[in-house]
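Page 42, continued from yesterday. The earlier attempt failed because a stray header line got pasted into the input along with the sequence. Redoing it now with the clean sequence only.
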Amino acid sequence: MIANITVITDNLDYLLWGRAAQGEPGGVLLSLLMTIGAAILAFPGGVLLACCAWRFRGWPRKVLFLWAELIRGIPLIFVIFWLWFLLPWLTGADLPGAVTVTLALAWFTSAAVMYSTLAALGALPDGQYEAALSSGFGSAQILRLVLLPQALRNALPSYIGLLIALLKDTSLAFIVNVPELTTVAGQVNNRVQVYPAALFVFTGLVYYLLCSALELTVKQWQRRHSLPANE
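This time it went through. Structure tokens are written below.
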């Protein structure tokens, strides 16, 4: 039992930070950085796509739905592979692996964000749109000032689930050898070749704690900002 713990403590810095001191973050730090980067791209992008699908009916909406269905119907690991080989061909440069995976995660997640936001917009009462329209608001103003703030608040539980899934999906970066937490745990296991159960139980526990902390943080923020409305 002591040896099991020792293999973790002896490699704890590498599991948590990777080679951050040499300018190469890894482990938990890189997993969080990729999650934050993908979320910054995916959530505003998905909301914008949902607004376009709501605002522009007809063929623009059909194109967006087709794109979203295509992305949602493909395993994320394939999206990572595609961008891994496609982006260097398109850009003419080799992008860092973490950047490629972050873009793949953002692209994949933005489709789910679009659907969640569009569903939240569709769930709002039709009377709000009609009342705002009769008050002289344009469609864009109604969406931005009346409907979207309510939809974003209603969709927050769905966004929390997507953000947690995004954090867990960073583990798929191991397939292209990006040194996030799962990858560095595998590297440590290959180096020491003992106690793999201890390493991967530790890895699973870290993911659980990160996801739980993320969910708790968002719920506390939601509760704190919703208190004035309930009083």
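Notes: The CA atoms of residues 132 and 146 lie 8 Å apart.
Reminder to self: strip header lines before submitting.
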